[in-house]
Sequence to fold (146 residues):
Amino acid sequence: MKLLADAPLVEVADGEYDVIVLPGGIKGAECFRDSTLLVETVKQFHRSGRIVAAICAAPATVLVPHDIFPIGNMTGFPTLKDKIPAEQWLDKRVVWDARVKLLTSQGPGTAIDFGLKIIDLLVGREKAHEVASQLVMAAGIYNYYE
Fold:
């Protein structure tokens, strides 16, 4: 299987995008952490007031080591909790910190909530509810609006 990006990172860094999403997985997150271009792109999104979203290993592995969000509340993959400062960690499936426009989520099992919150932030709660209503989800799982 071959995966290709829709656009090279250098184009994303200078593009007119509303959000940058860092997917999880420890190996991928380590590659992101070690990419100067990726880290600078995330910092640029943050400085320009755009949304930064990270799930699973990405908050602890990319955002924290580079001190991109020193005051942002966040969550991440539970076994990496010790890598996130205790005063920033929230034990929730999805965390939106509007002060710094940071969206984080815990992992694969929270990906739908994470995606719905991105929809909510970009096009509104009504559209997120419309999408959510078409999904078959266990009762009590969808709390993206918190």
